[in-house]
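The instructor's notes for this session suggest beginning with a concrete chain rather than abstract definitions. Hand out the sequence below and ask the class to guess, before any prediction is shown, which regions might be ordered.
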Amino acid sequence: MSDTLDPSRSPDLPEPIGSVGVVASLHKVPDGYQVVAQTTDGGDADLWKDGLFKSKVTRYLCFTRKNQDSVVVDMKFIDLRDAMPMGFTPVLETLDTKEPALRKRRLCVKICPRASAQTVLYDIQVMGRSKLPRTHYNCIGELNNMSIWYSAGDLPPTQRGLPSIANKTKTSTASPATSAATRPHFEHQASGSYALSAMDGVPFTISERFNDAPKETQRVSLMGITIKSLAEVEEEFQYNFSTERSIAL
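After discussion, reveal the predicted structure:
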């Protein structure tokens, strides 16, 4: 069962995580990224290390909160031969050296636009020897005898870029005439955000050249072919069926 943070009880939540990656060196962490270098009990959080042989290869999880347009809403481990879960993106390479990110298992993250996000990730931790569940944290699996946990919570409407509740109430109580005069029409989309219709404010008028119909159709000659008007065609090929009528009588 997932355990999420309650924004109403945790008003000092940090910015949600915007991207998750893996680095090969603690000295080459990209600007704006926070690296998970230690486990919760103070051990080395290297996800590549081998328990039997010492290896010079290292891998550390990292994340950033600087991505303002999109946020991470879920993450999970899958086996290398498993199909990619729908909506998830694999972390295949290290951010600093472009080498394979992990071995044995694959890390996948799910990202969505910030404006439509409901539950988002706020923190990621690596747990070593301790196997006790952490409050408000969810475990996505183990790698090299270490478990990866993340904390998630609802994204407050004020952080989604949506109108505040007070503004919505004020708008709904305004008189229809005032509302129509002071603000454009908004459409409520499935994402939960409000967007101005592309057709709002566009005047629709008929071009002046179509206001007056031509009095008569002129004969046009194109490549030796004369194009006649409807009246000319009817006059030239008019047939009153008088012979047929005389026989019928």
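Then share the key points. DSSP finds four helices and 14 strands in the chain. The helical segments are 165-173, 176-182, 230-236, 242-248.
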